[in-house]
From TrEMBL:
The keyword Aminoacyl-tRNA synthetase does not apply. It comes from Thalassospira profundimaris. The chain crosses the membrane at residues 13-31, 38-57, 77-103, 115-144, 164-188, 200-223, 435-468, 480-498, 518-548, 560-579, 599-619. Signal peptide: none annotated. It is found in: Membrane. This is Potassium transporter TrkA. The keyword Nucleotidyltransferase does not apply.
Amino acid sequence: MIESVVASSATSMQMWVVLALVAGSLVLYGLERISLELTSMALIATLLLFFEFFPLLDADGHNMMGADTIMSGFANPALLTVLSLLVVGQGMVLTGGVSYIAGLITEHGGKNASVAIFIGLFVVMLMSAFLNNTPVVVIFIPIIQALAERIERSPSALMIPLSYAAILGGMTTLIGSSTNLLVSSSLIELGMPGLEFFEFTAIGSVLAISGFIYVLFVAPRLLPALASMRSKLTNPDSSGKQFIAQITVGPASQMIGTRPVAGFFKNLPNITIQMIVRREHAELPPFESDMEIQAGDVLVVAATRKALTEALQKDPGLLHADAAAVNSDGEETPQKATQLLAEVMLPPGSRLIGFNLEQIGFRYQYKCLVLGIQRRSRMIRTQMTEIRLEAGDVLLVQGRSEDVEALRTIRDVVLLEWSTRTLPRPFHARRAATIFLGVIALAATGVVPIVVSSFIGAGLMIASGALNLRQASRAIDRKIVLLVAAALALGNALQLTGGAEFVADQLLTATRGAPAPVILSMFFLIVAAFTNVLSNNACAVLFTPIGIGMAQQLGVPPHIFAIAVVMAANCSFASPVGYQTNLLVMGPGHYRFVDFLKAGTPLIIVLWIVFSLFAPWYYDIPF
């Protein structure tokens, strides 16, 4: 008897310590005075030490919170899935495989940011009702990023809304989320019929539409333009400076046969053609409507590096043979290696000053192709290869990664380190798209678990050459790894020490004696709060039996409370660890923990109010 009391006291002490750690970690994550990674490591270390000296013993005397349990988060299938999908998505980005889809969305949305965002996010929400929303978000992360660039919006204003749209779509059908299936399975285990496919589609759609309006119009205003500010400082494509470039129209170019409309060529948007050289004759603007582009024409243009990159990526035939790389023997070779785009500046003492590119033999001497020349406050109307270089000129160059890196050692040019960027590799786009679609198809159809398909897909992306090991490793965010591992360790501690059940019981006890609609409303709010601390699947398993018991005491159909669990457990908006899709967008959006709190907490309140008003009326629950 005494041993039992001591054990109970120890368990109670462990529970209170874990609850204190949960509260402390939420404060530290929210303030971010200490880096998120360091907070996560400190939390794991504290749990390891505490349960080493105060073990949580089972009936056989085994420590249920040993190091194997606490550290299991590092090998969690959900974490491996997220990391693998990040690598697969990176492969799609580097091959330019998403530009076509982004172009379609932009084409239908035009320059109206609200329309373009609406189309993209609505498609995400619709697809998530019938597909696993994790791969749906993986598909649309690079698309929304490209869309943000096209409409000049910060990606950080769209990444969290993307995740939220996917979660909202998952509320509407039985297969929209694994949480929904778990609630249905829990009902069956309790001896009741499971949920039907469209049983909660009506109420789920009302919540999803209400949340979608918030996501579309309110959430972006609550999110700081983090990526936008960072890109202005570190992303050369965001600058508006113009380069003078010389484009040779190759025999396979889409420009052949095109004519100007009102003096402009629609195939070259955001690019100003200053001169067209045909054999020995030069045509100057304004161009006549009967002027037709022919193979071999040389276009002298003024454009930003972003516009040039997009034009050459869309129409590789523009550059003809000039785009070939040069090997160590001076011979041209196809560009199958990883290509970098960078800017180099000519310092005052450079030996290149006073010479043009042909005299220097820049492409053969430095193994890099000059795409453009930028000269401050000077409008040059001559062929790029005839421009004599001056001190302060900036050259936009393209070359293999090793050749661009070698420019650091050249004293005649200064490589602007911040300007270096990997170019898309369109010759691998088809194989990357095939791997990507295969991963999604296998996961969506359930042929293999998503962790299997995504892990294999990541390996195939590397093996096929769509990206190399260094690029794959850059796609993995250490912040996500440590955050997930710490959150899962805390979740295990809450469940095994009884902390989660204790708090739930205390909160539910406070609502006893209130009308059924009030209890249903409070129950929804409690589950919604817990799903941002525990995983949504853990909340589904924990609260479904509690909800059924409450329904039986109130004389209300049990399925109503089960559906409340479905809706509330999907409200994983206020924490990056609440759901996999939140983790996926954390890196691309450059978010902090507090950004999810700012954008997600009001959304939970909106859905709680809508549910509290709609559910009693829809299910005819009397006060």
